[in-house]
TrEMBL record:
Protein name: Mitochondrial coenzyme A transporter SLC25A42
Source taxon at top rank: Eukaryota
Family listed: Belongs to the mitochondrial carrier (TC 2.A.29) family.
Encoding gene (name): Slc25a42
Residue ranges of Solcar repeats: 34-117, 129-214, 224-312
Subcellular location(s) of the protein: Mitochondrion inner membrane
Amino acid sequence: MGNGVRAASADFKQQDVEPVISAHLPSEGTQEKKKVLNSLMSGALAGAVAKTAVAPLDRTKIMFQGKSCWLEAYRLIYRTYLNEGFWSLWRGNSATMVRVIPYAAIQFCAHEEYKQLLGSYYGFQGKALTPFPRFIAGSLAGTTAAMLTYPLDMVRARMAVTPKEMYSNIVHVFIRISREEGLKTLYRGFTPTILGVIPYAGLSFFTYETLKKLHADHSGKSQPSPPERLLFGACAGLIGQSASYPLDVVRRRMQTAGVMGHTYSSILLTMQEIIREEGLIRGLYKGLSMNWVKGPIAVGISFTTFDLMQILLRKLQHSTNVQR
């Protein structure tokens, strides 16, 4: 009988203690929500910091893609600087932030989720993906972000190549385009964007993740240093943007056609006209040399900011859980 009482008492204590312990442990659902939120916040900050850092170069590149020569683009930039001041070089950056913050947040968050899904599918839970799933995860992440934020990219391109008097703010761009050119115009250039995003995002994420894995395998360190992350991100940006650049030129031409005096009805016709008027290399690869400066800087900053922000948020959450 004494044994029965002690057993019953032990069961009671265990049942009484378990709910208390589980109440202090975050559930899987809560952990997943925090992980998604962390990815969204880190991605948003990464995009904002990277794009703001290269905004003047980005505006110059967009202008150059719509012009026939470097000299014409630089003259336009110089006139803009003289007439509107130094900060005019960041004109359109507010529209860029409106697009980049959700785009980067969605892209980085989607990449983390696609890595997890593909890892489960291929049996790589907790391990680095093999090359092909690594490329697919990046491509799917970029495609998802582009599909959800494309009209904002269209607005940014218009604001970058037009005089200040033409569009007063982001909302004004939406209203004028919708009224004068139709809602379909907001998705002009969408197809080349998606076709360009697949190799760009795929190769960028693939290269960055691969370099981090090679670094861990050869150095014995689990994490690269911030300068190493910047270098890996720069390599990723260089490779990704070089591969997708011609479609980026086509996309910009189609987006700005309404205000630049051109009419482009399809990707192939746009490419044909660019090649016929300006040549293959000078036309479809116009501004690539600037992209080799701007792109690696932006992508390097973006990847590094995302990783460091993720590490910081995880440490903060861990210390909060320990204190509880």
